[in-house]
Amino acid sequence: MRIIEIIFWVSFCALFYIYVGYPLLLAILAAVVPRRRPGGDYTPRLSILVAAYNEEAGIRKKIEQTLALDYAADLIEILVLSDGSTDRTDAIVESFRDPRVQLVRVAGRKGKTNAQNEGVKIARGDVLIFSDATTTYHPQALRHLASNYSDPKVGAVSGRYQYFDPEGRSPTGLGTIAFWNYENLIKRMQSRIYTITGCCGCIYSVRREAYSALAPDVISDLVQPLHVIRRGYKVVFEDRALAYEETTQSTSEEFSMRVRVITRGINGLLSVPDLLTPWKFAWVSFQLWSHKISRWLVPLFLLVLLASNVVLWQSSYYAAFLAAQVVFYSMALLSLVLPIHRRWKPFGIPLYFCALNAAALCSLIEVLRRKKYVVWETVRT
Prior knowledge:
- The chain contains twelve helices and eight strands.
- By secondary structure, the protein is α/β, with parallel strands linked by helices.
């Protein structure tokens, strides 16, 4: 029983460090580092690359909204990267008479990362901005991103996700919003200390000369910043550069999307193993082990915690802890089969937590099976 207790507490402490200890440590370190101020009104030429697959429902609105952003009209171009779209996406893009809008038709469906590689080949901007067709930017998002490049040490800049659930019907909506607010806080502190190691996929930018062509099966918003760091640049987080993204509207959509994203993230991190060595990249390695790898291992810690707790249930102390776990997972299961989140939104948080970690567990299995995800499906219409 003593060994089981040790296993229980090791699992508990690992989970505590991942979700509480690491952010607290960042907060302490960030508190003693002077705040970095981006340089004034710096406006380099921008290439905005929008990855799209069968986005006829929203691509016109995306282009119009991007053209209306607060940035000098002669300093932007919009490249819509159509990854083998079979609907009217290409025709809608070509209907724009504005010379700043260009369709980049990528033949054969090869995925978002490949489409970005192809788009960069013809982009003319000094700074490349990567966006999704479903994302809306704050009017001054481009200005806030661009201002950071006045510092020649900055090689990439991430904006900030702000998720919303328009009708309040998503079972995982509040969980998504809460989780990404938490993630943005961590990124803000990482950036203040020195550099972040991953960007927000629908709003991030890279200095042209710092961009690296990536393998199609890796997730670019994680791996591209890591390549930028390897080139000797910093990657910073600009929380004023907001991107508004709608939450998924079903648990199955969220789960499938997370499996794809995490699997690509693990494969991507395995492609740059040198960044995991603390004697070469101390701060970067610390972040990746504490924030990425440990997060992907959370479902294993949760299973071990629950299993060891079941063995220790005779003790009143451990029985109370087991009861708390049972209640938490029961709420998630109930939310999965009944729309109780519509009565009280916090009911959706356990469901999101469980869906996220179930996806991480499936992703670990997919990586062991050498499964690769290259393409994506459009789920919003």
